[in-house]
């Protein structure tokens, strides 16, 4: 029988803000679904949109980019570039009526443990409602 | 090994050749093999894609003997095993030319056959890609007829297929004989211990005498060899002398599809696309001033002749280059012709057996003069209509 | 008010004469133009330095045997001035390349035309040249959209050159066979053609062009509509690109794809056999070679906002995938995010090179 | 054969209680076959402890591990600990990876089952990644402890005095012919009026006397190349740019100060030279020279108007010190001749320092008059204003004193380009972070102090100068070496198309263009390793060491199992 759907969510987190925020969520013992596997990068701007496409096509039910709040980038303005690249990718997904909702960009500062937890909760709920990414089954990709 | 020493066995055809093959392979799946590599119709139902499969539902959707060859099977095998063979035992069902290409790529260390069983069949030829895109259903029907009627001289298949002398048994571990005209049966021939093991695992003990089958194959071969002669006579003037080469490729737009569709061109980056091959802006101007003009895309002839010099020894005449050419240049005919020349020069036959080393690995200075002259002259004066 | 140069010869011939004039008077060291090369009437782009070479030139021929944007990249920065007769989309492509440091406009006199559209390669190479254009020009002169041109051309809204020094008025020009009007958009153009012929004040016939534009816009709308129905998510995408044979010809002929090695052919995404085997156990089956969609999506993310809709990609696709239409649609959307028009202005920043602090506030919470 | 050591820290009960370590080890070991590698997988109670570290060393050596993966706490806690462990063995620390299964698994979900599942995925991802990591070698660089201070005002002087010592020379470059800058022209300093001026004179004296400080006047900076620890500076004489001198220093302090807004240029404050209209700085000079405020005739003014916030709208920011300065002047005039009517036209008052309020009150007590107005203009010595109640007024005074805004000093833009550090929209230098890193700049080794980074008083300026000195002292310890970041970008020549996209997105000027080769090149020592350039390169020609595509992609794949 089909076992219950546990979403696979990849989260690219920048070392200075979001990853630290995730740490804080842990230290404050905040509860959130373990579906999310963090991947640490120095800056969200390292995350080439191609990574998101890759993850999406390889069956990620959701992909999250976490960066410092605009203006607070540890590297001055990397996250502004991230935002633009994300906008482009989103537009492409929209035009192709691919599920844009599976991609998410969140600004989470080092002090926002609770926010990290809530982002994870919301996102996981949303993805769970959406169900598995069709790319998981399609053999012609 | 000569053919006669390769024993075979006849199995009855049930619900068509393809279904018979699918059943055979489905049985083996999970026992003597772990996965199958076969063409499957794409969802848009107008082409095929190579699918590596374990799921028997997918096997039932597969088209083991596809009407056409959108992607050369050796490429599929390469992408799987280029970085070394896996733990799964894979059976790949491919056309003879695809097997030959695979063998060449093994020699070039791009394919690892350790855990792969190569299955091939007497190939009626492949229909041109354009026919598939124009009217896929019609194409499939047409091909099914060729298969079931065991027809090997159809004028509808790709030009190179029409004079292909390698349409039958090659280096495959298992060969499915169709040429003997016995439409009620398939003749399974084991070409290697691996193949033999596979068959016996399926409870098939090979003891069939092949002489009757061999006669038929030789008959077809004679016709094809004759045809080859004619074609090559026609092609010769197309390639002899720079004038003619240039004319032959005068429509080339430099997309290099021929190279990227070629199973043998395994380079990540073709030298002719690389930075090293790029020229300074000033160079073109000087050249133009010398001759009144230069042509773009530049170095057309150089590219094609250069590519010949790189791969013609391993060319398996699969015709993918022609299929991929957007301006209908008979690339395959030309390359096939040149390949026959160069391969003869070394008494080498591409894809015949893994044990034959590619002559390139033991190059002698005085070899391949012809090609070298062409390359030189091509480099020295790109193309006459300038 | 612009100046126009008017001749009393057929357009094709007039353009040749202008080029001849430029060469003979040493205004330029060479001219880049379409020309007939071989007996069977093949066409190529020729960089010509002698006026007798112009005898075979067919500068206005509505075909694209290669994308001139790529050619101009290899010819520039030019030490000696050259004149190039190119299609508006080729010019826009070149401008996009220049933004990526793949060439320069210095020493280049750009000549373009109000473009009636380009005849697909497979038609143009099969048809003898004298049969190719009569019907085409009838319709162009009448300001109609020719039937036998590329789908993307039929929907092209940028058929008027954006940055050309000289614009040849073609679309809707009734008298095309007996006269030709060159709009001189720059001082460079004026000074270089000085002494060639009759100069008057004036410009393009905006009325005619607007009417024509409307026709193209309608076609474009229809195209986008029809695409919408096809692009209905993953399945639609697989239906369109599923038959891709992975030759990547589309990227190789693309004027925007300037990389010497496409990242999607590089080692970056290589997998070893264990990954395939795992994917196989997860999915039950998988495609080889892999990453068919990945390539096209990835390419979109790299260049869509710069797509000039020239249609070269669709022309070279051996599998007859409507690459150009899809990329054009998506390009229009991504470019719209930044009010960006590829090829409009060489000074305009490529969207991915810059950012605005106050943009996309809605993104990322 | 690759041999990966995988060690799971129980972290006391922290991890052990909520993650099934045995199961992790089992799953990890099963990778031996699929990956074709050897794996040593073991638990340990507390890896960060002394014994823990010894244990790890032991394990690495005896098992001859080629790679190391540790499942434990946050990298912020103990990454450096384990890196040091590696450094004491033959294992290159860049072949090690720490996986945070405490904060990210054990502590976020009560369900031990789920926590363990995630931990397994997470660690397997780490193992795959580490297999694709490659050795990196930190190279130590000798540093030059000397410092170049640009600007001989109090900021520069203070920094120089703090920094100069037997092992550290300071080059103090001033474009005018003498030290002291604006503050030296002040007639008096807040809060204790007399002492301040003398204090500054003393500092100038000390500076000139200090053998560790080489004062170079009538000179400006022409060019700077290099990075923290190793800068090369080219100086040139102001009145003869051809004569240049080269310096090598380890750090640079920008202390170029400010200038006062040209009020005369503002339409709302018209005046001719004949008029008795002065700026606060004029008055400071006057007080310094004559010791008193007098008209051009030498007589004392009977009435004086002081106009605050002159030209604030134009610059768009508050200059912080003008209020107290102007009040100070008002007081001085009143103290010197009580019969003079002193009227201050104010719109807002900015009195941030602890004794400003008292100081202001004393001024009122002395009889200085403060009028709050909406707008105020002056035409020579005639002052026109609109009060808060909309009523208009016009008065004539013997003398009008304007308190203009502070603006970036001349040549700030040019210098910022030479230094390659950005300017704030106000035109002052941009700090690395205005709030949390206020005296550093975008470039390591270049610091900014005083009014070059924005309006401020003498006190703030001195604070910053001292802060800068502190930072430099800890970053450039004489005789010690520095280890530049090794996780930096590198550009693969064969694939770079020279499109310069990376140059545009890099905010550190860490990428330069090689005109001969027509490709971009990374200045390793300047690169901060953020990877923005990698994300921007369509050609895949840039790779960020230790964060390469294959490495990250391994993690992605595992996350999707």
Average pLDDT score of chain C: 93
Strand order of the largest sheet of chain C: 3-2-4-5-6-7-1-8
Order of helices and strands of chain C: EHEEHEHEHHHHEEHEHHHHEHHH
Q: How would you name the CATH homologous superfamily of the largest domain in chain D?
A: FAD/NAD(P)-binding domain
How many structural domains in the coordinates of chain C?
2
In DSSP terms (H or I, runs of 4 or more residues), the helix count of chain D works out at 18
Structure annotation, total helices of chain C: 15
- How many β strands of chain D by DSSP? 28
Cα gyration radius of chain C (Å): 22 Å
CATH architecture of the largest domain in chain C: 3-Layer(aba) Sandwich
Gross morphology of chain C is globular
Number of strands of chain C: 9
Going by helix content, strand content and strand pairing, the class of chain D is alpha/beta
Shape of chain D: elongated
Helix/strand/pairing category of chain C: alpha/beta
Could you please say which CATH topology of the largest domain in chain D applies here?
A: FAD/NAD(P)-binding domain
For this structure, the quaternary state is heterotetramer
Structure description:
The complex is a heterotetramer of chains A (141), B (386), C (365) and D (561). By secondary structure, chain A is α/β, with parallel strands linked by helices. In chain A, 39% of the residues lie in helices and 16% in strands. Chain A has helices at residues 18-27, 49-57, 78-95, 113-130, and strands at residues 9-14, 36-41, 62-67, 103-107. The two termini of chain A are 26 Å apart. Chain B has helices at 16-28, 56-61, 73-81, 96-107, 129-134, 136-148, 159-162, 193-201, 211-239, 242-248, 257-261, 281-291, 300-311, 320-324, 331-345, 369-380, and strands spanning 8-12, 35-41, 48-53, 90-93, 116-121, 174-177, 185-190, 293-296. Chain B is built from 16 helices and eight strands. Chain C folds into two domains: 3-208, Aspartate Aminotransferase, domain 2 (3-Layer(aba) Sandwich); 230-353, no CATH class. In chain C, α2 crosses α3. Chain D is elongated and about 100 Å long. Classes of the chains: A alpha/beta (141), B alpha/beta (386), C alpha/beta (365), D alpha/beta (561). Chains in contact: A-B, A-C, A-D, B-C, B-D, C-D. Chains B and C meet through β2, β3, α3, α5 and α11 of B and β3, α2, α4, α10 and α11 of C.
